[in-house]
Each structure stands twice: as structure tokens, then as C-alpha cells.
Amino acid sequence: MSELIAVKGIQEGLLVTLPSGAWADLEPALYARMQEEDQFFRGARIILQVGKREMKAADLGRLRDKFGDLEINLTAVLSEARLTQQAAKALGLQTQLAKTPASVAAAAAAKLEPGISMAALMQQTLRSGRTINHAGHVVVIGDVNPGAEILAGGSVVVWGRLYGVVHAGAAGDPEAMVCALDLSPQQLRIGKLITTSPVRRGQPEPEMAHIRDGQIVAERWVPKDKFKRLT
Predict the structure, then answer these.
(1) Of 211, 206, 212, nearest to 225 (Cα)?
(2) Which end of the chain is more exposed for a tag (fewer CB within 10 A), N or C?
(3) CA-to-CA separations, 69 to 38, 92, 110, 149, in angstroms, rounded
(4) Range 6-91 classified under CATH 3.40.390
């Protein structure tokens, strides 16, 4: 059930969209998803999209408290049901996003077809101490210096040197990959697997890391052949 819960990054936080089904089944699945990927969700602002589902203040309050135990902030509940809207307002939660470019992006994210996620584009070098946390793919045009970190729900593409820490597929996607012109991270994680860079011999070349047979492997990256795997 938890794998059917869609998570997309927007400017206001993480847009979490619930699938159809009984709340009694979805509540434990949602909480389990947050626990399993606690590093990814910790500190995040959650906008919960529940559609036409009717939820009482007690339901939302219990969920907010459980999220709080994991250091996750439930800030908004989006619903077409009047009962749910009233319950959310009673708890001080937002029931709609302001009409800003960010809210337009949120609406677009909610309508994306399954398997397609919003990507974050960074046209700069990420220096030590900088952390990027995004629910979809992350593309960096620049370097990722030692001490910088990228945490992505999808794949990570660095058009430059990757020397920092990167975690692709942080929400549990084993199909995610990490590509860079110089793939030399301090630490590399894909899904629940983790590795470090071996000592490099010779000149760096574009490489792509992905999971094969239960382990992370790196191979020569030819963008024109491999970019299609990001779609």
C-alpha cells in the first residue's frame, strides 16, 4: 500500500497524494512510509492531498502528532470534502495553497502521470555545507563539492564533478541512478544500498551508478543512450 502513495517536491514542501482506499488501511501505510524513509522526510513540510476523502479532526490530529514524533511537519491538507476542510482548519492547517508560481507548480505536480516526477534544476556549484532535498529527480549543472549533500527521491545527474554525498531513490526507488562527468562521491546511496568511491586510476570519465543484482555498480555513461532511463 505504501508504494502507491505519491510524493512530489514543490516549493512549499513535499506534496503527498493518497491513493483510493480506506483510511484505516492508508494511515498505517503512510506512517510506515515516513518511518522507512525517515532521513528523507525528517524536517520536511508535508502538504497532504486526500481528494474527496472525508476525515475528522481526530484523524488529522492523530496523524499530525505521529508526524511530529518523526520531526515531520504536517502544514496543509488539500481536500474536496467540506468535512475534511473544516477539520483541517480547526487544527490550524492550511486547506489551500496561495495563488503563486509555487502553487501552480504544486497543481501541475498533482496532475502528473504515474512514474513522472518534477525535477529540480540547480545551475550552480554546491559548496560544503549545502544540502539539496527534493522528492523528484535532481539535476546539477556545476560541481558538488566535498561536504555538500544531495538527497533525491529520484535520480541525480551532475554535469560536473560529484565529490560530495548523494542519495538517489531516497524514497525507496531501486530504479534510480546517479550520473556525473566525474563520479567520485564521498558516499553514494541508491535506495537502501550504500557505497563509497574506489581509488581512481587515470583520468575521470562520465559514469553512471545504478543497482544491478542487489549491489551498486558504476559503468561508463553515454548520455545519448542513458538519459531515456530517467523518464
Answers:
(1) 206
(2) C
(3) 11, 18, 27, 25
(4) no
For the stretch 8-21, pLDDT in tens is 777 677 888 888 88
Pairing of strands 73-79, 45-51: parallel
User: What are the structural domain ranges in the chain?
Assistant: 6-91, 111-220
For 70-154, where are the alpha helices, taking DSSP H only? Answer: 82-90, 101-110
Q: How far is CA 194 from CA 54, 147, 219, in A?
A: 41, 17, 16
The more confident residue out of 207 and 231 is: 207
Rg (CA), the chain: 19
Q: What does pTM read for this prediction?
A: 0.58
Spatial separation of the C-alpha atoms in residues 75 and 91, rounded to whole Å: 10
For 98-117, write each residue's pLDDT tens digit.
654 444 455 555 555 555 56
Alpha carbons 182 and 162: distance in angstroms, whole number = 6
| Cell triple for 44 | 520536511
CATH dotted code for 111-220: 2.160.20.70
